[in-house]
Amino acid sequence: MSYTVSLDEKDMKILKILAKNARIPYSEIAKIVELSDVAVIKRVRKLEQSGIIKGYTLIVDPKKLGFNSISITGIDVEPEHLFDVIERLRNMENIKYIALTTGDHSIIVTVWARNGEEMAKIHDMISKIPGVKRVCPAIILDVFKDERV
After folding, report:
1. Which of 65, 72, 87, 68 is nearest to 131 (CA)?
2. 6: number of Cβ within 10 Å
3. Dist. CA 50–CA 1, nearest whole Å
4. Which end of the chain is more exposed for a tag (fewer CB within 10 A), N or C?
């Protein structure tokens, strides 16, 4: 059962703080949002239990790992092959994100590659998956905003 949880301004502020740094101590959050440590802990637990906070993760910079070419790639797929294509994409190491969409493309993926040559090979591999009609890459040149909340 899906339901919407009512959040106030302080809950939203806590979410934004945790999205920037999930390791920040509750005592620091408490000072920023002007609540007690205990109140912050209770709010965070409520956000976790309601499923708003699904987990904590780290965010890496792909370029610092040697992945200098990143793309957001749209993939057009024949409907009867959709989930087979998704399964094949899930098994490709360089694909870091897969979404089923209603937009211009059936599937959107994020691809990490070491360079343009490797990126071209990955896109070529995707294009050869049975059921793929078209691959439409958009290479990311720079990121100007990346918010999680």
Report:
1. 87
2. 6
3. 12
4. N
Domain boundaries, the chain: 9-49, 62-139
pTM over 0.85: no
Give the pLDDT confidence of 66-85 residue by residue, as tens digits. 999 999 999 999 999 999 99
First to last CA, the chain: 23
| Contact of 93 with 121, CB cutoff 8 Å | no
DSSP 96: E
CATH ID of 62-139, from 3.30.70.920, 3.30.460.80, 3.90.1170.50, 3.20.20.80: 3.30.70.920
